[in-house]
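Morning F.,

Quick status update on the modeling queue. The single chain you submitted on Monday has been processed. Sequence for confirmation:
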Amino acid sequence: MSAPVFTAPAAAEDVARMRRALIAAARGLQVAPPGPEVWGWRGRTLGRRAGTSWLRIVCAPSGKAGGRAAVGGHCARGRGGAPGGAASAAA
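Structure tokens below.
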């Protein structure tokens, strides 16, 4: 596996909050994401493989969720980049 392109947020409390949100999203979707963490641009997204799909959460200010971060998996899937499907939950 290659080196990560993006890294976790600098603030430990942001890392912990994102990890808790990913765990909560996985429970809500009844999936167990066993893969390694993959951090997105500026630590605003966190994802892991969840079976044949990908689970990713996005951290955005209220009312600002959406845009490229929210549809990146869908767009990548069309180009052969993202596995299976994409599910996301707001953090």
